[in-house]
Amino acid sequence: MQSIRGMHDILPDEISYWQHIYNMALKILNTANYKEIRTPIVESTSLFLRSIGQDTDIVNKEMYTFLDQGKRHLTLRPEGTASIARAIIQHKLCEPTTIQRVWYLGPMFRYERPQQGRQRQFHQLGLECYGSINPIVDAEIIYLAQTILHALECTDFTIEINSIGTLENREEYKIRLRHYLEKYKNDLDNESQSKLYTNPLRILDSKEPKIHEILYYAPNLADCLDPKSMIHFQSLQEYLKSLNIKFKINRQLVRGLDYYNDTVFEINTNLLGTQGTICGGGRYDSLTEQLGGKRIPAVGWGIGIERLLLLIKDKIELKNNKLCIYIATQNSCYLQYSLQIIPIIQQYGLKYELDLSGSVLKKQLQKALKKQAMLCLIIGEEEVKNSSITLKWLTKYDQYTYTISDFINLVPNIYAEYLNFNPVKPHHINVGSY
Questions:
Q1: E-strand spans in 284-359?
Q2: Intervals of CATH 3.40.50.800 along the chain
Q3: CA pair distance 280, 295, nearest whole angstrom
Q4: What's the CA gap between 98 and 95, in Å, rounded?
Q5: CA angle 187-193-199, nearest 5°?
Q6: What are the residue ranges of CATH 3.30.930.10 in the chain?
Q7: What is the pLDDT confidence band of residue 272, given thresholds at 50, 70 and 90?
Q8: Three-class secondary structure of residue 273 per DSSP
Q9: N or C: more exposed end of the chain, with fewer CB within 10 A?
Q10: Minimal CA–CA distance to 304: which of 144, 80, 43?
């Protein structure tokens, strides 16, 4: 049996990197008073039809939608924002007029061609702030995205921002853009031609060089912005400068979802080819209203974890991944005796492994060395008879026998040494008396 195409296992050797990202995000976002939220993977299909937009690629091509046994139309969530908005409405998280700051990390699903850094099941770290229209929040969340990326040693990127104004501004711009593009209709690729009369803004998001050439002299969305949107965008730029955040304005940046308004932004790198967007987000002040709730202004972003790992995995220095104690028994019948040692070790958070192989003691010691354990705890006939244990320090070549009570007193010293322990490469071990 094989896993489904585009849906990969995260194996034990990989999971430490994911935990590192989670813990870093938790630390930074908790400092900014963002609280974690977890929404269901499966939602009503109508949630995404109403929020993402009927003419988007996600709705038309990429959603995993099915009928359950109750004949309900359900969808594996293709993105996180709609689910958060639904939760905000359902649980009245912004009533009365309060600011609600939340973040999440979890799997999303889109039926698209699997590629490096983007699978059909992919994972997003996301952040959302509900309850404020102030552009200072837009600047703060961009700052938090940059802070997380820097903390993860991802620094080779650029921040691009734009304003797409209100729905009315975009409708006016669509007319101007469509009128311009109709002159080049025969030069557009099939996908762009299909979007010309449904949602020409999506053409701005094309990755085709020829389309970029055509768009070079296209009308500018900035010319359609109303004064309120222009002030919002200008304020955002001033706030980003106050935070010492470098950015550039990209007038063709629109993002791929219909619920955005005013601020949109992306954090991009040139290290991943055409799939260079690490983080993307913006403002969606009418989303809760679209979903049947009251209007609650909101802004947020999402970071693709798989894509991020391609950039930082080699730079991550994992901590606390070293093995402290390897428990070896001279005979399998002594395993029960070893169980009384485990709570002592666990109390101090010393990473251990109990050998269950039943192999001879020499092979168990060789495995302890191969796993780069700091010491091997040995239990044989004499230890069981005398209610003791033997410790073999694999880096010092020292070996001592202790009573259980003496071992308990020794554990704090072992813990202190474990904190500074640097594993060494496997080499020959002198088994000694064992």
A1: 298-304, 325-329, 352-354
A2: 325-419
A3: 23
A4: 6
A5: 135
A6: 12-165+226-315
A7: confident
A8: coil
A9: N
A10: 80
Residue positions forming the annotated binding site for L-histidine: 79-81, 110, 124, 128, 255, 259-260
Q: Which two tokens stand for residue 223?
A: 């010319």
Tally of CB atoms within 10 A around 186: 6
pLDDT score recorded for residue 56: 67
pLDDT in tens, 326-366: 999 999 999 999 999 999 999 999 999 999 999 999 999 99
In 3D, which of 305, 27, 303 has the Cα closest to residue 159?
A: 303
Q: Which amino acid is located at 279 in the chain?
A: C
SS3 for 58-81 is: HHHHHCEEEECCCCCEEEECCCCH
Cis preceding-peptide flag for 209 (omega within 30 of 0)? no
| Topology of domain 12-165+226-315, CATH | BirA Bifunctional Protein; domain 2 (3.30.930)
Binding residues: 79-81, 110, 124, 128, 255, 259-260
Handedness of CA 18, 101, 302, 39 (dihedral sign): positive
Each residue of 356-391: b (16+ CB within 10 Å) or e? eeeeebeebbbbbbeebbbbbbbbbeebbeeebbbb
Residue in the block written with tokens 């010309």: 196
CATH of domain 325-419: 3.40.50.800
Q: Which residues contact 254 (CB under 8 A, 6 or more apart)?
A: 162, 164, 201, 202, 204, 205, 221, 260, 264
